[in-house]
Amino acid sequence: MTKKNGLSPRSIAAQAGRRPDEENGAVVPPVHVSATFQRDANYELPAGFLYGRCGNPTVAAAEEAIARLEGAHAARLFGTGMAAIAALFETVPCGGHVVLPQVMYFANHPLIAGLAESRGFEISVIAPADPDAGKASVVPGKTDILWIETPANPTWDIVDIAQAAEIAHSAGAILGVDGTAAPPCTTRALDFGADIVFHSATKYLNGHSDLTGGVLAFREGNDRFEAVETLRTRFGSIMAPFEAWLLMRGMRTLFIRYEKASENALAFAQTFEGHRRVEEVLYPGLPSHKGHQIAVKQMTGGFGGMLSLIVKGSGEEARKVASSVQLMIPATSLGGVESLIEHRKTIEGDDSPIPDNLLRISIGIEHVDDLIADMRGALAQIG
To answer: Is 185 strand, coil or helix?
Structure first.
């Protein structure tokens, strides 16, 4: 990762939100919970904060840290990832058009479809890693957002961000990237030409499964940025101060957490590739993964802890594996220090395009030998 303003991103993350208290020298920043802010003798707002729904010093400190990590003009935090997605797609004009990948975080599809219906814009759905489909789907002068997710949840397809940016910009559209599984310690989507990068801050940025949040980081402070910020204020969907403080605490260990999870995941994937009860391991760090070479180019800080196993057997057998683990936790989410596993079809429903025998696994920072032994024992339950 390249240095910005004399500091490496690793150092920026390690001291996220660092503003030693001028009054008492406290190294850890305080949580500012005030809902409102006093005006000075000139009836002006000394630090620009008016009301908690509009902004907050603790939230602003977390946003500044994320913007520096992403190389962004600014970042804006929301109480949930879905709130951030909703605010962005609320800016699509009536009569506009967006392009979405078929494989992406499953809850985004119905959310964006509902917004399309109420706001009057169109949606095209394409294969996630097919540039020809992307080129064929954008409509010059009409497409507003080309949206990609890389790695794509839960198949971990890799999309070439620079290529997608070229496709979007050639049609006069913006490129939005869901980089939840590839945080800025490994991929800075804006450096590859993206206009906006989104993260579910619940996941790797925080890394401790103790808050919900979403963030949008913007390349430019343009009309889109202003519109999203206005919508956040109107909806009151800003992240709460304590969650922002927790997020900063989590970000300070982002690099070491992600590196260890990546190391563990690669060893785990290599172990089960070719296992007699595993049909396929989906992990971009494996040379056998169809997007591996693009991942090598884009994910310079590791391939992350997210992978999926396609169990050789039925959906019921896959569910049995997920319920037979002892160390990994059968739960939804990803990017935490603890390892999680789930039968994804059960979560997404029968309409999901993913295989019924797919297990999504978020590898954490436990000893990898214990994780491998746990999966071996669970697979043994199906013969």
So the answer is: coil
Instruction: List residues bridging with 94 in a β-sheet.
Output: none
Gap between the Cα atoms of 327 and 370, Å rounded: 8
Q: How far apart (Å, rounded) are the C-alpha atoms in residues 262 and 4?
A: 24
> What topology is assigned to 254-380 in CATH?
Aspartate Aminotransferase, domain 1 (3.90.1150)
State whether CATH 3.40.640.10 applies to domain 9-251.
yes
Residues 6+ apart with CB under 8 A from 288: 273
- What is the DSSP secondary-structure string of 237-275? -BPPHHHHHHHHHHHTTHHHHHHHHHHHHHHHHHHHTT-
Mean pLDDT of 216-244: 97
What pLDDT score does 351 carry?
87
d(CA 301, CA 297): 10
How many residues can be counted in the chain?
383
Calpha distance 306→312 (Å, rounded): 20
- pTM score of the predicted model: 0.94
| Contacts of residue 369, Cβ cutoff 8 Å, sequence gap at least 6 | none
Sign of CA dihedral 145, 295, 271, 334: negative
Give the pLDDT of residue 21.
72
| pLDDT tens, residue by residue, 94-151 | 999 999 999 999 999 999 999 999 999 999 999 988 989 999 999 999 999 999 999 9
Closest among 13, 255, 245 to 4, alpha carbons compared: 13
* Cβ-contact 306, 295 below 8 angstroms: no
pLDDT for residue 179: 98
C-alpha gyration radius of the chain: 21
> Chain centroid to CA 96: how far?
25
pLDDT recorded at residue 355? 95
Which amino acids are annotated catalytic? 53, 105, 178, 203
Domain-by-domain residue ranges, the chain?
9-251, 254-380
